[in-house]
Design brief:
Elements (H helix, E strand, L loop, with lengths): L4 H14 L4 E5 L6 H14 L4 E5 L2 H15 L4 E3 L12 E5 H4 L2 H4 L9 E5 L7 H9 L4 E6 L7 H4 L5 E5 L2 H6 L6 E11 L5 E2 L2 E2 L1 H8 L3 H11 L5 E4 L3 H13 L4 E4 L6 H10 L4 E4 L14 E4 L6 H8 L12 E9 L9 H4 L3 H12 L6 E2 H19 L1 H9 L7 H7 L3 H4 L14 H10 L9 H17 L4 H9 L10 H13 L32
Parallel strand pairs: 1-6, 1-7, 2-4, 2-5, 3-4, 5-6, 8-15, 11-13, 11-14, 12-13, 14-15
Antiparallel strand pairs: 8-16, 9-10
Protein backbone atom coordinates (compact mmCIF):
# COMPACT_ATOMS: atom_id res chain seq x y z
CA UNK A 1 0.00 0.00 0.00
CA UNK A 2 1.39 3.40 -1.01
CA UNK A 3 1.75 5.80 1.89
CA UNK A 4 1.01 9.50 1.77
CA UNK A 5 4.15 11.70 1.97
CA UNK A 6 3.67 12.57 5.64
CA UNK A 7 2.95 8.93 6.49
CA UNK A 8 6.24 7.86 4.91
CA UNK A 9 8.01 10.69 6.77
CA UNK A 10 6.48 9.41 10.01
CA UNK A 11 7.52 5.82 9.28
CA UNK A 12 11.12 6.85 8.62
CA UNK A 13 11.20 9.16 11.65
CA UNK A 14 10.16 6.33 13.97
CA UNK A 15 12.91 4.04 12.68
CA UNK A 16 15.41 6.87 13.05
CA UNK A 17 14.37 7.53 16.65
CA UNK A 18 14.69 3.86 17.55
CA UNK A 19 18.39 4.08 16.75
CA UNK A 20 18.73 6.59 19.59
CA UNK A 21 15.96 5.76 22.11
CA UNK A 22 13.72 2.80 22.97
CA UNK A 23 10.38 4.56 23.45
CA UNK A 24 9.12 7.16 21.01
CA UNK A 25 5.84 8.88 20.19
CA UNK A 26 3.97 9.50 16.93
CA UNK A 27 1.23 12.13 16.72
CA UNK A 28 -1.23 12.23 13.82
CA UNK A 29 -4.62 13.98 13.89
CA UNK A 30 -7.76 11.88 13.72
CA UNK A 31 -8.44 10.92 10.10
CA UNK A 32 -4.80 11.00 8.97
CA UNK A 33 -4.20 7.27 9.00
CA UNK A 34 -2.25 6.54 12.15
CA UNK A 35 -3.24 2.87 11.90
CA UNK A 36 -1.78 2.71 8.39
CA UNK A 37 1.49 4.15 9.68
CA UNK A 38 1.90 1.78 12.59
CA UNK A 39 0.86 -1.12 10.35
CA UNK A 40 3.76 -0.21 8.03
CA UNK A 41 6.13 0.09 10.99
CA UNK A 42 4.88 -3.28 12.27
CA UNK A 43 5.58 -4.89 8.90
CA UNK A 44 9.11 -3.45 8.97
CA UNK A 45 9.77 -4.89 12.42
CA UNK A 46 8.39 -8.30 11.50
CA UNK A 47 10.67 -8.32 8.45
CA UNK A 48 13.56 -7.55 10.81
CA UNK A 49 12.66 -10.63 12.88
CA UNK A 50 10.71 -9.06 15.76
CA UNK A 51 7.58 -10.34 17.37
CA UNK A 52 5.23 -7.32 17.70
CA UNK A 53 2.59 -6.59 20.35
CA UNK A 54 -0.13 -4.05 19.58
CA UNK A 55 -1.80 -2.80 22.76
CA UNK A 56 -5.17 -1.11 23.08
CA UNK A 57 -7.66 -0.51 25.88
CA UNK A 58 -10.82 -1.39 23.93
CA UNK A 59 -11.86 -4.43 21.95
CA UNK A 60 -13.03 -2.34 18.97
CA UNK A 61 -9.56 -0.82 18.62
CA UNK A 62 -7.95 -4.27 18.65
CA UNK A 63 -10.31 -5.47 15.93
CA UNK A 64 -9.64 -2.36 13.83
CA UNK A 65 -5.88 -2.80 14.20
CA UNK A 66 -6.08 -6.48 13.18
CA UNK A 67 -8.26 -5.67 10.17
CA UNK A 68 -5.96 -2.84 9.03
CA UNK A 69 -2.84 -5.00 9.35
CA UNK A 70 -4.48 -7.67 7.26
CA UNK A 71 -5.72 -5.26 4.59
CA UNK A 72 -2.75 -2.88 4.42
CA UNK A 73 0.30 -5.10 4.84
CA UNK A 74 -1.05 -8.65 4.67
CA UNK A 75 -0.19 -9.62 8.25
CA UNK A 76 -2.41 -11.92 10.29
CA UNK A 77 -2.66 -11.45 14.05
CA UNK A 78 -2.94 -13.61 17.13
CA UNK A 79 -5.08 -12.34 20.01
CA UNK A 80 -4.27 -11.90 23.69
CA UNK A 81 -7.60 -11.12 25.27
CA UNK A 82 -9.68 -12.74 28.01
CA UNK A 83 -9.95 -16.44 27.09
CA UNK A 84 -7.78 -16.14 23.96
CA UNK A 85 -3.99 -16.49 24.12
CA UNK A 86 -1.28 -15.90 21.56
CA UNK A 87 1.12 -18.38 23.16
CA UNK A 88 1.90 -21.15 20.73
CA UNK A 89 0.67 -19.15 17.72
CA UNK A 90 2.91 -18.91 14.67
CA UNK A 91 1.75 -15.34 13.97
CA UNK A 92 4.47 -12.72 14.55
CA UNK A 93 1.94 -10.00 15.43
CA UNK A 94 -0.27 -10.02 18.52
CA UNK A 95 -3.15 -7.64 19.29
CA UNK A 96 -3.51 -7.53 23.05
CA UNK A 97 -5.95 -6.14 25.58
CA UNK A 98 -4.35 -4.01 28.27
CA UNK A 99 -6.93 -5.17 30.79
CA UNK A 100 -5.90 -8.77 30.12
CA UNK A 101 -2.12 -8.42 29.89
CA UNK A 102 -1.75 -6.19 32.93
CA UNK A 103 -2.66 -9.09 35.23
CA UNK A 104 0.36 -10.54 36.95
CA UNK A 105 -0.55 -14.17 36.24
CA UNK A 106 -0.95 -13.34 32.54
CA UNK A 107 2.34 -11.47 32.29
CA UNK A 108 4.25 -14.24 34.06
CA UNK A 109 3.50 -16.54 31.13
CA UNK A 110 5.65 -14.39 28.83
CA UNK A 111 9.45 -14.20 28.91
CA UNK A 112 10.58 -10.54 29.17
CA UNK A 113 12.10 -10.75 25.67
CA UNK A 114 9.02 -12.33 24.05
CA UNK A 115 8.17 -9.12 22.17
CA UNK A 116 10.84 -7.08 20.40
CA UNK A 117 8.45 -4.23 19.55
CA UNK A 118 5.34 -2.86 21.27
CA UNK A 119 2.88 -0.48 19.58
CA UNK A 120 0.43 1.39 21.84
CA UNK A 121 -2.69 2.61 20.08
CA UNK A 122 -4.32 5.70 21.66
CA UNK A 123 -1.07 6.27 23.52
CA UNK A 124 -2.43 9.17 25.57
CA UNK A 125 -3.64 6.40 27.90
CA UNK A 126 -0.11 5.02 28.35
CA UNK A 127 0.62 6.96 31.54
CA UNK A 128 -1.78 4.70 33.46
CA UNK A 129 -0.44 2.01 35.78
CA UNK A 130 -1.84 -0.81 33.64
CA UNK A 131 0.18 0.16 30.58
CA UNK A 132 3.32 0.87 32.56
CA UNK A 133 3.14 -2.55 34.24
CA UNK A 134 3.22 -4.20 30.80
CA UNK A 135 6.03 -1.98 29.52
CA UNK A 136 8.10 -2.65 32.63
CA UNK A 137 7.75 -6.39 32.06
CA UNK A 138 8.93 -6.17 28.44
CA UNK A 139 11.53 -3.56 29.37
CA UNK A 140 13.92 -4.17 26.44
CA UNK A 141 11.29 -3.83 23.70
CA UNK A 142 11.18 -0.92 21.29
CA UNK A 143 7.99 1.02 21.99
CA UNK A 144 5.94 3.21 19.65
CA UNK A 145 3.06 5.23 21.07
CA UNK A 146 0.52 6.43 18.49
CA UNK A 147 -2.09 9.05 19.27
CA UNK A 148 -4.12 11.88 17.82
CA UNK A 149 -4.05 13.68 21.15
CA UNK A 150 -0.51 14.00 22.45
CA UNK A 151 -1.30 14.87 26.00
CA UNK A 152 -3.33 13.87 28.96
CA UNK A 153 -3.72 17.45 30.02
CA UNK A 154 0.00 17.97 29.42
CA UNK A 155 2.59 16.52 27.01
CA UNK A 156 5.02 16.38 29.92
CA UNK A 157 2.96 13.56 31.41
CA UNK A 158 3.77 11.40 28.41
CA UNK A 159 7.42 12.33 28.87
CA UNK A 160 7.37 9.94 31.84
CA UNK A 161 6.70 7.01 29.49
CA UNK A 162 8.23 8.09 26.17
CA UNK A 163 11.72 9.43 25.51
CA UNK A 164 11.09 11.42 22.36
CA UNK A 165 8.55 12.70 19.88
CA UNK A 166 9.48 11.03 16.59
CA UNK A 167 7.03 12.88 14.39
CA UNK A 168 4.03 15.16 14.69
CA UNK A 169 1.67 15.99 11.85
CA UNK A 170 -0.41 18.92 12.99
CA UNK A 171 -4.08 19.58 12.34
CA UNK A 172 -3.41 22.92 10.55
CA UNK A 173 -0.88 21.29 8.23
CA UNK A 174 -3.27 18.41 7.48
CA UNK A 175 -5.97 20.92 6.55
CA UNK A 176 -3.60 23.04 4.43
CA UNK A 177 -2.36 19.98 2.53
CA UNK A 178 -5.88 18.78 1.82
CA UNK A 179 -6.00 15.64 3.97
CA UNK A 180 -8.59 16.95 6.46
CA UNK A 181 -11.56 19.22 6.02
CA UNK A 182 -11.37 22.92 7.03
CA UNK A 183 -13.01 23.74 10.36
CA UNK A 184 -15.30 26.69 10.99
CA UNK A 185 -16.13 27.62 14.56
CA UNK A 186 -19.39 29.34 15.35
CA UNK A 187 -19.83 30.82 18.81
CA UNK A 188 -23.49 30.52 19.80
CA UNK A 189 -24.77 33.51 21.82
CA UNK A 190 -26.28 31.32 24.52
CA UNK A 191 -24.63 31.43 27.92
CA UNK A 192 -24.81 28.22 29.94
CA UNK A 193 -24.01 28.59 33.62
CA UNK A 194 -21.80 25.75 34.90
CA UNK A 195 -19.98 27.85 37.48
CA UNK A 196 -21.27 25.63 40.27
CA UNK A 197 -20.13 22.32 38.74
CA UNK A 198 -17.46 20.53 40.76
CA UNK A 199 -14.49 18.49 39.55
CA UNK A 200 -13.91 14.73 39.46
CA UNK A 201 -10.72 13.01 38.23
CA UNK A 202 -9.40 16.22 36.69
CA UNK A 203 -12.54 17.17 34.77
CA UNK A 204 -16.07 18.42 35.30
CA UNK A 205 -18.32 15.95 37.11
CA UNK A 206 -20.67 14.50 34.49
CA UNK A 207 -23.70 14.22 36.78
CA UNK A 208 -23.48 17.88 37.78
CA UNK A 209 -22.96 19.00 34.17
CA UNK A 210 -26.12 17.09 33.36
CA UNK A 211 -28.09 18.96 36.01
CA UNK A 212 -26.70 22.34 34.89
CA UNK A 213 -27.29 21.58 31.20
CA UNK A 214 -30.88 20.31 31.44
CA UNK A 215 -32.65 23.72 31.57
CA UNK A 216 -30.96 24.81 28.34
CA UNK A 217 -31.73 21.79 26.11
CA UNK A 218 -34.82 23.32 24.48
CA UNK A 219 -32.90 26.54 23.68
CA UNK A 220 -29.97 24.60 22.29
CA UNK A 221 -32.27 22.62 20.01
CA UNK A 222 -33.74 25.92 18.78
CA UNK A 223 -30.27 27.28 18.01
CA UNK A 224 -29.37 24.08 16.16
CA UNK A 225 -32.53 24.35 14.07
CA UNK A 226 -31.25 27.72 12.85
CA UNK A 227 -27.58 26.78 12.41
CA UNK A 228 -27.22 23.15 11.35
CA UNK A 229 -30.58 21.78 10.20
CA UNK A 230 -29.04 20.92 6.83
CA UNK A 231 -25.95 19.23 8.25
CA UNK A 232 -25.03 15.76 9.48
CA UNK A 233 -24.44 16.32 13.17
CA UNK A 234 -22.97 14.44 16.12
CA UNK A 235 -23.81 15.70 19.61
CA UNK A 236 -21.75 14.78 22.69
CA UNK A 237 -23.59 14.88 26.05
CA UNK A 238 -22.62 14.09 29.67
CA UNK A 239 -25.01 11.22 30.53
CA UNK A 240 -27.08 8.62 28.69
CA UNK A 241 -30.37 9.92 30.08
CA UNK A 242 -29.53 13.44 28.85
CA UNK A 243 -28.57 12.08 25.45
CA UNK A 244 -31.90 10.28 25.17
CA UNK A 245 -33.85 13.32 26.36
CA UNK A 246 -32.08 15.59 23.87
CA UNK A 247 -32.80 13.12 21.05
CA UNK A 248 -36.51 13.43 21.82
CA UNK A 249 -36.32 17.24 21.95
CA UNK A 250 -34.51 17.34 18.59
CA UNK A 251 -37.09 15.05 16.98
CA UNK A 252 -39.82 17.34 18.25
CA UNK A 253 -37.91 20.25 16.67
CA UNK A 254 -37.93 18.74 13.19
CA UNK A 255 -34.65 16.78 13.21
CA UNK A 256 -34.27 13.07 12.47
CA UNK A 257 -32.31 12.21 15.60
CA UNK A 258 -31.06 8.93 17.03
CA UNK A 259 -29.15 7.98 20.18
CA UNK A 260 -26.54 5.32 20.95
CA UNK A 261 -24.92 4.25 24.20
CA UNK A 262 -22.87 1.41 25.61
CA UNK A 263 -25.98 -0.63 26.38
CA UNK A 264 -27.66 -0.16 22.98
CA UNK A 265 -28.44 -3.59 21.53
CA UNK A 266 -29.05 -2.03 18.11
CA UNK A 267 -25.96 0.19 18.15
CA UNK A 268 -24.47 -1.20 14.93
CA UNK A 269 -27.79 -0.80 13.11
CA UNK A 270 -28.28 2.79 14.33
CA UNK A 271 -24.73 3.78 13.33
CA UNK A 272 -25.24 2.21 9.89
CA UNK A 273 -28.55 4.04 9.46
CA UNK A 274 -26.94 7.34 10.46
CA UNK A 275 -24.16 6.75 7.98
CA UNK A 276 -26.74 6.01 5.28
CA UNK A 277 -28.69 9.22 6.00
CA UNK A 278 -31.75 7.84 7.78
CA UNK A 279 -30.88 10.15 10.70
CA UNK A 280 -29.26 13.58 10.49
CA UNK A 281 -28.33 13.90 14.19
CA UNK A 282 -26.66 11.31 16.39
CA UNK A 283 -26.65 11.88 20.16
CA UNK A 284 -24.27 10.00 22.45
CA UNK A 285 -22.87 10.11 25.94
CA UNK A 286 -19.13 10.13 25.11
CA UNK A 287 -19.37 6.73 23.40
CA UNK A 288 -18.08 7.87 20.01
CA UNK A 289 -14.88 9.65 21.06
CA UNK A 290 -12.59 6.86 19.81
CA UNK A 291 -12.72 4.14 17.20
CA UNK A 292 -15.78 5.29 15.22
CA UNK A 293 -15.59 6.89 11.80
CA UNK A 294 -18.28 8.48 9.69
CA UNK A 295 -16.55 10.83 7.21
CA UNK A 296 -19.78 12.52 6.11
CA UNK A 297 -20.26 14.14 9.56
CA UNK A 298 -19.99 17.89 8.95
CA UNK A 299 -21.16 19.35 12.27
CA UNK A 300 -20.11 18.61 15.85
CA UNK A 301 -21.86 19.94 18.94
CA UNK A 302 -20.02 19.53 22.25
CA UNK A 303 -22.52 19.65 25.12
CA UNK A 304 -20.11 17.93 27.47
CA UNK A 305 -17.79 20.80 28.46
CA UNK A 306 -14.29 19.61 29.37
CA UNK A 307 -10.94 20.98 30.41
CA UNK A 308 -9.13 17.93 28.99
CA UNK A 309 -7.75 18.86 25.58
CA UNK A 310 -7.30 15.28 24.47
CA UNK A 311 -10.95 14.48 25.06
CA UNK A 312 -12.07 17.62 23.25
CA UNK A 313 -9.90 16.79 20.23
CA UNK A 314 -11.31 13.29 20.11
CA UNK A 315 -14.87 14.63 20.03
CA UNK A 316 -14.22 17.16 17.29
CA UNK A 317 -12.14 14.62 15.38
CA UNK A 318 -15.33 12.72 14.55
CA UNK A 319 -16.01 15.37 11.93
CA UNK A 320 -12.62 16.21 10.42
CA UNK A 321 -12.40 13.47 7.78
CA UNK A 322 -12.84 14.26 4.10
CA UNK A 323 -16.00 13.18 2.31
CA UNK A 324 -17.44 13.87 -1.17
CA UNK A 325 -19.47 17.08 -1.17
CA UNK A 326 -18.27 18.09 2.29
CA UNK A 327 -17.00 21.67 2.28
CA UNK A 328 -16.10 22.10 5.93
CA UNK A 329 -16.80 21.02 9.48
CA UNK A 330 -19.01 23.34 11.51
CA UNK A 331 -18.15 23.33 15.21
CA UNK A 332 -20.77 24.91 17.46
CA UNK A 333 -19.22 26.50 20.55
CA UNK A 334 -21.49 27.63 23.37
CA UNK A 335 -20.62 30.31 25.91
CA UNK A 336 -20.09 28.16 28.98
CA UNK A 337 -19.91 30.29 32.10
CA UNK A 338 -17.39 29.01 34.64
CA UNK A 339 -15.55 31.08 37.17
CA UNK A 340 -12.91 28.64 38.32
CA UNK A 341 -11.68 26.53 35.42
CA UNK A 342 -10.41 26.94 31.90
CA UNK A 343 -12.57 25.18 29.34
CA UNK A 344 -11.50 23.66 26.06
CA UNK A 345 -12.73 25.65 23.08
CA UNK A 346 -12.14 25.45 19.30
CA UNK A 347 -8.83 27.22 19.93
CA UNK A 348 -7.71 24.13 21.88
CA UNK A 349 -7.65 22.17 18.61
CA UNK A 350 -5.09 24.33 16.89
CA UNK A 351 -3.19 26.49 19.39
CA UNK A 352 -0.04 25.25 21.10
CA UNK A 353 0.19 28.34 23.26
CA UNK A 354 -2.34 28.85 26.06
CA UNK A 355 -1.99 32.61 25.65
CA UNK A 356 -2.86 32.45 21.96
CA UNK A 357 -5.74 30.06 22.70
CA UNK A 358 -7.20 32.51 25.24
CA UNK A 359 -6.90 35.40 22.80
CA UNK A 360 -8.47 33.37 20.00
CA UNK A 361 -11.36 32.36 22.26
CA UNK A 362 -11.92 36.02 23.16
CA UNK A 363 -11.86 36.98 19.47
CA UNK A 364 -14.35 34.25 18.54
CA UNK A 365 -16.68 35.29 21.36
CA UNK A 366 -16.82 38.75 19.79
CA UNK A 367 -17.93 37.15 16.51
CA UNK A 368 -21.01 35.33 17.85
CA UNK A 369 -23.35 34.04 15.19
CA UNK A 370 -20.73 34.20 12.43
CA UNK A 371 -18.68 31.13 11.36
CA UNK A 372 -14.94 31.78 11.51
CA UNK A 373 -12.25 29.70 9.81
CA UNK A 374 -9.93 28.33 12.51
CA UNK A 375 -6.72 28.91 10.56
CA UNK A 376 -7.59 32.55 10.02
CA UNK A 377 -8.60 32.87 13.66
CA UNK A 378 -5.36 31.44 15.04
CA UNK A 379 -3.30 33.63 12.71
CA UNK A 380 -5.07 36.75 13.99
CA UNK A 381 -4.73 35.63 17.61
CA UNK A 382 -1.02 34.90 17.16
CA UNK A 383 -0.46 38.35 15.70
CA UNK A 384 -2.38 39.93 18.57
CA UNK A 385 -0.33 38.07 21.19
CA UNK A 386 2.97 38.86 19.51
CA UNK A 387 1.99 42.53 19.33
CA UNK A 388 1.13 42.50 23.05
CA UNK A 389 4.42 40.82 23.90
CA UNK A 390 6.40 43.23 21.76
CA UNK A 391 4.70 46.11 23.55
CA UNK A 392 5.49 44.61 26.95
CA UNK A 393 9.09 43.85 25.94
CA UNK A 394 9.57 47.00 23.89
CA UNK A 395 12.50 48.33 25.90
CA UNK A 396 14.29 44.96 26.03
CA UNK A 397 13.78 44.30 22.31
CA UNK A 398 14.93 47.80 21.37
CA UNK A 399 18.16 47.24 23.26
CA UNK A 400 18.64 43.93 21.46
CA UNK A 401 18.12 45.56 18.05
CA UNK A 402 20.71 48.22 18.81
CA UNK A 403 23.42 45.82 19.94
CA UNK A 404 26.43 45.83 17.69
CA UNK A 405 26.82 42.09 17.55
CA UNK A 406 27.07 39.66 14.68
CA UNK A 407 24.29 37.33 15.87
CA UNK A 408 20.62 37.94 16.63
CA UNK A 409 19.23 37.30 20.13
CA UNK A 410 16.80 34.32 20.27
CA UNK A 411 14.06 36.45 21.83
CA UNK A 412 14.33 39.05 19.09
CA UNK A 413 14.24 36.30 16.47
CA UNK A 414 11.14 34.68 18.00
CA UNK A 415 9.27 37.97 18.15
CA UNK A 416 10.32 38.92 14.63
CA UNK A 417 9.07 35.68 13.04
CA UNK A 418 5.95 35.73 15.25
CA UNK A 419 6.68 32.28 16.66
CA UNK A 420 4.66 32.05 19.87
CA UNK A 421 5.34 28.29 19.99
CA UNK A 422 9.06 29.01 20.34
CA UNK A 423 8.50 31.68 22.96
CA UNK A 424 6.22 29.36 24.99
CA UNK A 425 8.29 26.20 24.56
CA UNK A 426 8.54 23.94 27.61
CA UNK A 427 10.68 20.74 27.46
CA UNK A 428 8.59 17.54 27.57
CA UNK A 429 11.14 14.72 27.38
CA UNK A 430 14.22 14.05 29.45
CA UNK A 431 16.85 14.90 26.83
CA UNK A 432 15.11 18.17 25.98
CA UNK A 433 15.92 19.74 29.36
CA UNK A 434 19.66 19.18 28.91
CA UNK A 435 21.86 22.10 27.76
CA UNK A 436 22.31 22.50 23.98
CA UNK A 437 25.03 20.29 22.53
CA UNK A 438 28.20 21.74 21.07
CA UNK A 439 26.94 20.76 17.61
CA UNK A 440 23.62 22.58 18.19
CA UNK A 441 25.41 25.70 19.44
CA UNK A 442 27.70 25.71 16.42
CA UNK A 443 24.77 25.24 14.02
CA UNK A 444 22.81 28.09 15.65
CA UNK A 445 25.84 30.36 15.46
CA UNK A 446 26.38 29.55 11.77
CA UNK A 447 22.70 30.33 11.11
CA UNK A 448 23.03 33.73 12.79
CA UNK A 449 21.39 33.09 16.20
CA UNK A 450 23.20 33.77 19.48
CA UNK A 451 23.41 30.33 21.15
CA UNK A 452 24.00 31.74 24.64
CA UNK A 453 20.32 32.68 24.86
CA UNK A 454 19.08 29.13 24.12
CA UNK A 455 18.65 27.32 27.43
CA UNK A 456 17.89 23.71 26.42
CA UNK A 457 18.62 21.06 23.80
CA UNK A 458 14.91 20.81 23.03
CA UNK A 459 14.66 24.52 22.32
CA UNK A 460 17.80 24.36 20.18
CA UNK A 461 16.36 21.55 18.07
CA UNK A 462 13.09 23.42 17.64
CA UNK A 463 14.97 26.52 16.50
CA UNK A 464 17.10 24.55 14.04
CA UNK A 465 14.03 22.79 12.64
CA UNK A 466 12.31 26.15 12.21
CA UNK A 467 15.38 27.59 10.46
CA UNK A 468 15.41 24.69 7.98
CA UNK A 469 11.69 25.06 7.28
CA UNK A 470 12.02 28.80 6.74
CA UNK A 471 14.86 28.23 4.26
CA UNK A 472 12.61 25.85 2.32
CA UNK A 473 9.81 28.43 2.31
CA UNK A 474 12.07 31.26 1.17
CA UNK A 475 11.71 33.42 4.29
CA UNK A 476 14.21 35.78 5.89
CA UNK A 477 17.39 34.61 7.58
CA UNK A 478 18.49 35.64 11.10
CA UNK A 479 21.30 37.73 9.54
CA UNK A 480 18.79 39.63 7.43
CA UNK A 481 16.60 40.16 10.50
CA UNK A 482 19.52 41.48 12.53
CA UNK A 483 20.72 43.81 9.77
CA UNK A 484 17.34 45.35 8.96
CA UNK A 485 15.94 45.58 12.47
CA UNK A 486 19.09 47.36 13.60
CA UNK A 487 18.04 50.02 11.09
CA UNK A 488 14.53 50.33 12.48
CA UNK A 489 12.55 47.93 10.28
CA UNK A 490 9.95 45.86 12.17
CA UNK A 491 8.87 42.19 12.03
CA UNK A 492 11.39 41.43 9.31
CA UNK A 493 10.92 37.76 10.17
CA UNK A 494 7.59 37.82 8.34
CA UNK A 495 9.22 39.02 5.10
CA UNK A 496 10.39 36.86 2.22
CA UNK A 497 14.11 36.32 1.67
CA UNK A 498 13.85 38.17 -1.65
CA UNK A 499 12.11 41.21 -0.10
CA UNK A 500 14.78 41.49 2.60
CA UNK A 501 17.57 41.10 0.06
CA UNK A 502 16.03 43.78 -2.10
CA UNK A 503 15.98 46.24 0.80
CA UNK A 504 19.52 45.38 1.91
CA UNK A 505 20.80 45.83 -1.64
CA UNK A 506 19.08 49.24 -1.82
CA UNK A 507 20.73 50.27 1.43
CA UNK A 508 24.10 49.00 0.18
CA UNK A 509 23.67 50.91 -3.07
CA UNK A 510 22.98 54.04 -1.04
CA UNK A 511 26.29 53.93 0.77
CA UNK A 512 24.91 51.73 3.57
CA UNK A 513 22.33 54.38 4.45
CA UNK A 514 18.57 53.90 4.39
CA UNK A 515 17.08 55.81 1.41
CA UNK A 516 15.27 58.98 2.49
CA UNK A 517 12.04 57.85 0.81
CA UNK A 518 11.76 54.92 3.24
CA UNK A 519 10.48 55.15 6.83
CA UNK A 520 11.74 51.85 8.35
CA UNK A 521 9.20 51.62 11.18
CA UNK A 522 6.32 51.98 8.70
CA UNK A 523 7.74 50.06 5.76
CA UNK A 524 6.02 46.90 4.53
CA UNK A 525 7.48 44.62 1.85
CA UNK A 526 5.65 44.66 -1.44
CA UNK A 527 5.32 48.42 -1.49
CA UNK A 528 8.16 48.43 -3.96
CA UNK A 529 8.86 45.58 -6.32
CA UNK A 530 11.87 44.43 -8.27
CA UNK A 531 12.86 41.23 -10.04
CA UNK A 532 15.73 39.27 -8.59
CA UNK A 533 17.50 36.14 -9.76
CA UNK A 534 16.27 33.02 -7.98
CA UNK A 535 19.79 31.95 -7.23
CA UNK A 536 20.79 35.29 -5.66
CA UNK A 537 22.43 35.10 -2.26
CA UNK A 538 22.54 37.43 0.70
CA UNK A 539 25.81 39.29 0.97
CA UNK A 540 26.96 40.79 4.25
CA UNK A 541 30.07 42.98 4.60
Amino acid sequence: MELRPYQQEAREAVEHQWREVDRTLLVLPTGCGKTIVFASVTADRVSAGDRVLILAHRGELLEQAADKLRQAVGLGCAVEKAGESCLGSWYRVVVGSVQTLMREKRLEQFPPDYFGTIVIDEAHHAVSDSYRRILDHFSDAKVLGVTATPDRGDMRDLGVVFESLAYEYTLPRAIREGYLTPIQALTVPLTLDISGVSMQSGDFKASEIDTALDPYLEQIAGEMAQLCADRKTVVFLPLVKTSQKFRDILNASGFRAAEVNGESTDRAEVLADFDAGKYNVLCNSMLLTEGWDCPSVDCVVVLRPTKVRGLYCQMVGRGTRLSPGKGNLLLLDFLWMTERHELCHPASLICESEEVARRMTENLAEETGCPVDLEEAVQQASEDVIAQREEALAKQLEEMRKRKRRLVDPLQYEMSIQAEDLADYVPAFGWEVLPPTAEQQEALSRAGILPDGVESAGKARLLLDRLAKRREEGLTTPKQIRFLEQRGFRSVGTWSFASAKHMIDRIAGNGWKTPRSIVPAEYKPGEERADWRKDSTFWMP
